[in-house]
Design a protein that fits this description.
Layout lengths: L13 E2 L13 H9 L20 E10 L5 E7 L10 E2 L2 E3 L7 H13 L6 E6 L3 E2 L4 E10 L12 E8 H4 L6 E7 L2 E13 L5 E7 H15 L1
Parallel strand pairs: 2-8
Antiparallel strand pairs: 1-10, 2-3, 2-5, 3-4, 3-9, 6-8, 7-8, 10-11, 11-12
C-alpha cells in the first residue's frame, strides 16, 4: 500500500539523543549471541501501528540479517515501486507465513532465500523479537541472524530494487532516531525514521530513508540490546 504522504518531507518533532547508544562491546557477535541466550527482562517500545485497512490480519516474518564485517552491519532492501504493500520502502527481507512453514523462523529463512537469494545455511539464527503489527495488517515476527559477508545474493528483481547495508552501531544509537507525526483521516499517526546518508561505489551521495515498521523493529532491537 502506497502512503498518501511523503514521510521525508514531514518535520522532525524530536530526536532521542538523550538516550544512550548500545555500547560497542555489546555489539560484538559473542555479546549478541549471549543476549539472546540469556535475554533480560524488557518490553518492546512499539508493538502495534494504527490500522488503516480492513484486510484480515496475517502472520509474517522478517529476517534481520546482521553481517559479520569488521564493523557489524544490518542488511536491508529497497522494495520496488509497484508492490501492493509498502512499495518503494526500505525493509528487511521477509513476507507472509505459509501453511507449510514450520514456524516463524522458517518463514523468515524461506522468504529471505526467495527475496534476496540468501540460503538458510548461511544464516546463524540468534533468536526472535516480539511480534510487531503493521498498519497494513501483518503480524510480523523479526528473526535476528548472523550472516557471513562473503555470501552470494541473488535479489528477486520483481520485489527488490536494491540491497544495501547500514552499520549496526548507527542504528543502535538513538541520536539517529527521529520522531515524526501526521494526522490522517482525523487520526494522529506517529513514526520513527533513521535516515542513513552515505556515498555509493560511484562516489554519489545517497540517502536511505529508513522509517515506519522497519525503524520501529530496529527501535525494539535497540530496547532489547540496551535493557
Amino acid at each position: 500500500m502506497a502512503t498518501s504522504f511523503d514521510p521525508e518531507k514531514l518535520p522532525v518533532i524530536g530526536i532521542d539523543e538523550h538516550l544512550p547508544p548500545v555500547g560497542d562491546h555489546d555489539l560484538l557477535p559473542h555479546a549478541l549471541r549471549q543476549r539472546f541466550t540469556a535475554p533480560p527482562v524488557w518490553s518492546p517500545e512499539i508493538v502495534v501501528e494504527r490500522r488503516f485497512t480492513e484486510r484480515k490480519q496475517a502472520h509474517a516474518s522478517v529476517l534481520v540479517p546482521i553481517v559479520l564485517r569488521e564493523e557489524l552491519t544490518v542488511l536491508l532492501t529497497q522494495r520496488t515501486d509497484h508492490l501492493t504493500d509498502h512499495a518503494g520502502q526500505i525493509s528487511f527481507p521477509g513476507g507472509r507465513a505459509e501453511p507449510y512453514d514450520a514456524d516463524a523462523v522458517a518463514t523468515a529463512l524461506r522468504e529471505a532465500q526467495e527475496e534476496i537469494g540468501l540460503a538458510p545455511e548461511h544464516v546463524d539464527v540468534l533468536g526472535s523479537l516480539p511480534t510487531y503489527t503493521t498498519g497494513t495488517g501483518f503480524i510480523v515476527t523479526p528473526v535476528i541472524g548472523l550472516v557471513q559477508p562473503d555470501r552470494a545474493l541473488q535479489p528477486d528483481p520483481f520485489e527488490v530494487a536494491e540491497v544495501f547495508e547500514v552499520p549496526l552501531a548507527f542504528l543502535m544509537n538513538p541520536a539517529n532516531h527521529r520522531r515524526h507525526a501526521i494526522e490522517l483521516g482525523g487520526v494522529q499517526r506517529e513514526f520513527l525514521s533513521m535516515p542513513w546518508d552515505t556515498v555509493d561505489e560511484q562516489g554519489t551521495a545517497r540517502r536511505y530513508f529508513i522509517w515506519g515498521a522497519t525503524a520501529a523493529m530496529l527501535r525494539n532491537l535497540y530496547r532489547f540490546l540496551s535493557a
